[in-house]
Amino acid sequence: MKKNITLSRYLVEQQRVDGLIPAQLRLLIEVVARACKRISHSVNKGALGDVLGTAGSENVQGEVQKKLDIIANEVLIEANEWGGHLAAMASEEMDSIYLVPNRYPQGEYLLMFDPLDGSSNIDVNVSIGTIFSVLKKPEGHPGVTEDDFLQAGAQQVAAGYCVYGPQTTLVLTFGDGVAMFTLDREQGSFVLTQENVRIPEDTKEFAINMSNMRHWDEPVKRYVDECLAGVEGPRNKDFNMRWIASMVADVHRILTRGGVFMYPWDKREPNKPGKLRLMYEANPMSWLVEQAGGAATNGRERILDIQPTKLHERVSVVLGSKNEVERITRYHTEA
Ligand code: P6P
């Protein structure tokens, strides 16, 4: 791979080569990347900056907001509202959509994000991240409403995340494969470090919060029990388990070395289809995983085919190595 290809050069060359990245979308991604650099800087301050602990408020999900949740949300709003590339934004941290103020030009894109995913890990110095998804605003009517955001994940025009871990790494797709960029703090740029990311179709590693086992549905119990049975069991191989409780970190591991991630429906809140949010967690992650040769379902159907009905809709998630996702999905449809 060529050396020192910065994100800006990569986007210009991709735009030139296949027109997948119109100028306004290229600007959008460059602005989001710059915002992620600023968020990374705040995250890295930790106890040295006034950024740890809770903000004393709750978000639309009823979750206690951390100071860094609000900082990250504000950084993304301020970075994107003036550029003329967006019509509106939506965030896990905001009840309703955020319209670009009238003092700025309106663009054709809609940006959704979880500004800082994995907040429970902030104060204990474990990897966290920003997840984002880009849709085109439907044409034919002026202004923007929440309904304009309610598009299936298959309609995304760009998606990605930035993981704030030992390295700060930006992972992107525009529908032509997955690329990874590592932040070079000396030059202040994201530098291309991997292209055409591929997830192995098989794996020996699963990720799920095992403390919820007694609440799972039968197909999930069956799958995990078979993994735990190891080489003496029906799978004829031993499995390893990981659970970081930051979706960004678990998905990054799967994109890097394979594996399967599950946050399934469970009996604790039977009226909720799952814990994770469809529009700005499951959809962008599912597209990235599919673009890397993996699969992503809600246990029964492809996540990217789900037609959203609410902005903060939740969904059950099974994603990662293709053959494992197909097995787990088969267990659900057989049940
Ligand atoms: P639990 C983080 O809060 C998050 O939304 C995902 O990033 C993560 O995979 C999941 O929730 C962790 O949930 O119930 O294990 O704390």
Fill in the keyword field for this structure.
335 residues, alpha+beta, Fructose-1,6-Bisphosphatase, Chain A, domain 1, D-Maltodextrin-Binding Protein, domain 2, 2 domains, 8-stranded mixed sheet, 5-stranded mixed sheet, binds 6-O-phosphono-alpha-D-fructofuranose
Give the biggest beta sheet.
8 strands, mixed
What's the rounded overall pLDDT mean? Answer: 95
Structural shape: globular
- Strand arrangement, major sheet: 4-3-5-6-7-8-9-10
CATH class of the largest domain: Alpha Beta
Question: Using DSSP, what is the number of strands?
Answer: 17
Q: What is the count of distinct domains?
A: 2
The computed structural class is alpha+beta
Number of helices: 7
The helix/strand order is: HHEEHEEEEEEEEEHEHEEHEEEH
Q: Which quaternary structure do these chains form?
A: single chain
Low-confidence stretches: none
Strand percentage, roughly? 15-25%
CATH-level-2 architecture of the largest domain: 2-Layer Sandwich
Summarize the structure in words.
The chain has an 8-stranded mixed β-sheet, sandwiched between helices. The chain has 2 domains: 7-194, 2-Layer Sandwich (Fructose-1,6-Bisphosphatase, Chain A, domain 1); 205-334, D-Maltodextrin-Binding Protein, domain 2, CATH 3.40.190.80. The chain contains 7 helices and 17 strands. By secondary structure, the chain is of the alpha+beta class. Strand 11, helix 4 and strand 12 form a beta-alpha-beta unit. The protein has helices spanning 7-18, 23-45, 67-80, 218-229, 247-257, 278-291, 322-334; strands spanning 54-58, 64-66, 86-91, 98-99, 109-117, 128-136, 158-164, 168-173, 178-184, 189-194, 205-207, 240-241, 260-263, 276-277, 295-297, 314-315, 317-320. The longest helix has 23 residues, at 23-45. Helix 4 packs across helix 7 and helix 5 (247-257) packs parallel to helix 6 (278-291). Bound molecules: 6-O-phosphono-alpha-D-fructofuranose (P6P). 6-O-phosphono-alpha-D-fructofuranose (P6P) binds next to loops.
